[in-house]
Amino acid sequence: MHVGTDVDEWEETLEARYPAPPGQFRTVNPEKVKEDFRDYRAEARPSVREFYRRNHQQQTLEFVRSKKAEYGALGRKQMGIWEAMEFLNTLVDDSDPDTDLSQIEHLLQTSEAIRRDGRPRWFILTGLVHDLGKILCLFGEPQWAVTGDTFPVGCRFSDRVVFAEFFADNPDTHVPDYQTPCGIYTEGCGLDQVHLSWGHDEYMYLVTRDYLPEEGLAMIRYHSCYPIHKEGAYSELLTDRDQELLGWVRDFNQYDLYSKSHSRPNVAELRPYYEDLIAEYFPPVVRW
Ligand SMILES: [Fe+2]
Ligand SMILES: [Fe+2]
User: Fold this and answer.
1) How far, rounded to the nearest angstrom, does the alpha carbon of residue 63 sit from its chain's CA centroid?
2) Which of 111, 178, 204, 256 qualifies as a cystine partner to 128, CB 3.0-4.6 A?
3) How far apart are CA 78 and CA 76, in angstroms?
4) How far is the centre of ligand 1, averaged over its atoms, from the C-alpha of 256 (Å)?
5) Distance from the CA of 230 to the center of ligand 1, in angstroms?
6) CA 255 to ligand 1 center in whole angstroms
């Protein structure tokens, strides 16, 4: 299956928005560290703008609720984790194959960077599976409903969300109940109670919620929620426990964003190690 634009184009713009702080990430490519902060908005390709225009226009509370109901039953497919990695890898993009990693390579680079740092086994496994929710693309979901930054719906759209101006075209902007700081939620209700825009994060959380520890689930569920974990928006909705979990999400984020400059992982060589790790936490067949 070919996707019109690079499925990870938005992640490339993430690296421009949030360059690795010097010295903070031990395994990062030093050439990347040297890069100055760049204006991601000026650099963003027209396709990235168009992606966010569609995303911000169509991610409404109603849309999110309907997708959670549709996918929450996990009745679409039954397959093991490694099988899902191979399935995701059939998602081919049209960009330069010399510089872009396949989906499976991104997963293994992330998990290998975590492993090199001697982190716990569940953390390594979380790195391995964190983007498997992108198989939503293979279930026919448009890219704007799979990838990109996520943000709360059902309360006021923060101007700290990337391309926030496109929220002007979101129908929820005209629902007064949704446009107070807490909207349909109450102060300090906890992130678990808040509907985030629909995409691969929430879907993969639904798939893995019975199998991974709370910290790993937070990494999976919130890793694209840059307005909260990087920009500090929506703090009025969070609990103290959320703040602790967001520390883990930020910890994970450096491996997700900054492990891409390493050499290509040898998939066949790494497979036995990861099959064992998968079997420690997941049943042989998982519901998707
Ligand atoms: Fe992701
Ligand atoms: Fe990722």
Assistant:
1) 18
2) 111
3) 7
4) 8
5) 15
6) 11
